[in-house]
Amino acid sequence: MAGSPASLSGRDVGSFAYLTIKDRIPQILTRAIDTLHRHKSEFFEKHGEKGTEAEKKAISLLSKLRNELQTDKPIIPFVEKFIDTDIWNQYLEYQQSLLNENDGKPRWFYSPWLFVECYMYRRIHEAIIQSPPIDDFDVFKESKEQNFFESQESIVALCTHLQELVTAIKDLDENQLKDEFFRLLQISLWGNKCDLSLSGGETSSQKINIINSLEELKPLILVNDMEHLWSLLNNCKKTREKASLTRVDIVLDNSGFELVTDLVLADFLLSSQLATEIHFYGKTIPWFVSDTTIHDFNWLIEQVKSSNHKWMSKCGVDWGNYIKMGKWVYHDHIFWTLPHEFCVMSQVAPDLYAELQKAHLILFKGDLNYRKLTGDRKWEFTIPFHQALNGFHPAPLCSIRTLKAEIQVGLQPGQAEQYMASEPNWLTSGKYGIFQFDGPL
Length: 441
Fold this sequence. Notes:
By secondary structure, the protein is α/β, with parallel strands linked by helices. The chain is built from 18 helices and 7 strands.
């Protein structure tokens, strides 16, 4: 891509990309293999000998994958026919075409990090779908559910806060409404810390009441464009005709506690009439350990609904009703689990791009979305966000992420250096967050 810097990759020994490929990814594969082992008797009970054979086959395929990675073998094409197999294999050919003749094949530590990390999760999926009758098994399901159950106290506090807010919402003046909007945006931001791929699949639940921590967390927001989001949605609300819509799209990241924070924000947007419909986008296959699939989305709403806490249960009932009424719409699309950066979406997935163009505002949650928005490249810290998006502008958009990768654009001169001096891992610890907006100001 002319004028764009090089991709982040495992070539840079000691970098976060290098350590992810060297340590975190093998750890995630080991946990996936252990999960299959632990379900051995369940597979046998359900499917008899066929289940046992399938478990052995899936483990053998994942062990082979782990070995390929750890010995930096060439990256091989996909063989199992699936909806995206051809697109993936074309992309592998494209990666090959970028190499010089002397470089050989694309390899784990030398190819772009974004590509090899996505490829690894797609290979996990291939191992499972090559192993019927356990070909619908989600190796990450348990850890996602554990994250939800271990975050119960925080979820109850959040649902209680929302129900109290919704009850009083008609009495709030504009400034109070804006304060509440900012509060729930920040809760959704810090909910993004609960990322299981960052911890190698170890638990990362939310155990403190996040609502009480917002003031002390505020200085950790490096780019804060919340005012732009308020202006845009409040203006839509004021100028909206009776029959017209304001649509907010949320491209989801993690299931569990983070998804609850996103649904609470979405509920508030409807209750406050800042939006009239919300569209959610999740993943078609298990992805990056904790990313939300349609199963996770529906399962979580059912769990909230069946809670014996009255306000939590009320949230679940309301959320189920929003779906029935069409005020909340869930979409998935294979593009979200491809390795492509978003600037090629209009060519690779024109149907998805056209869908996003219908939104008044798109919120992109989390780190992987940010990496794909910016191409996961070695941008200067001060490059404008708009420039790093490289032509991707379906609608006004905002990235809401805690920093867990060595990429950040749109900072003030000197800002990055200030953090680097005191905290060498400021880009990857998840301690800092951003609300980074691109659209008409």
